[in-house]
Amino acid sequence: MSFYDILGIKCKAYNKKVFKLNPFSNIVGKFTKITILVETGTDYKLIFAGNENLLPTFKVEDDTLYIEQTHRFNKQGILANQILKIIVPASIQLQNCRLYNKLGNINLINLKIKELQINCHAGILKVCHAKIENADLKIGRGNLEIHSSRINLGLLSTYDGELKVLCSTLNDVKLNVTEGNIIMTDNILQGGSSQLYSGNFALTNTTLKSDYSVKNSDGNNTAWNVNVKKADLQSENGNNTMKAKPNSTGFILKMIARDGDNLVK
Prior knowledge:
By secondary structure, this protein is mostly beta strands. The protein has 2 domains: 14-72 and 79-148, no CATH class; 162-264, no CATH class. The protein has 1 helix and 28 strands. The longest helix has 4 residues, at 3-6. Pfam families: DUF4097.
């Protein structure tokens, strides 16, 4: 008798399955524990690697891919690592993509999406080389990373984790972290803001296209090599230091720290 038999889990061999799908413009997915990848290819396709018993149910209906993990798991909740890949043609723009994952990582690569909504209770979310019109990305426990992407409107938030934006363009996007750091490097920012409750904020090699504000309760705020015309620095229990030479064609950077230092250099 195997270990899984003792726990009452019926298992089939760990394998890989590939499914060709009819075209769709929307994705609605709800998962219990799985690693999810959504990326571009030459056709509409679904690839699952894992225990066959844990294959999510799915259907394409009304221009929408509906996919869900509906399995009932034993009390111990022991699962093998399951990987699900959703592939869409590189030429299309997804109109709406809504994903919920209780436990596991989510990766989106080379996508064009009009409306993106992701809620992950625990895991790492990465968005790379994507163009998104409106994004609402929320992580309960885990990191959120945006790389080489463009987001025109939305909210990026994590309760307990690091939020990192690299080589990207954000227009009217709000960043929110409760416990963790915000790191922004090599970006273009227009509108939007950042708010932290317990963590450090770092803004590096960034071009501002409008005024920008940062509010931090417990942590330091630092900006390096940013086109700042004027720095509005406020701290109740910390130092405010402006070392950078003002840029006459730049914008106002407002940084507020309750318990921490503000530094622009």
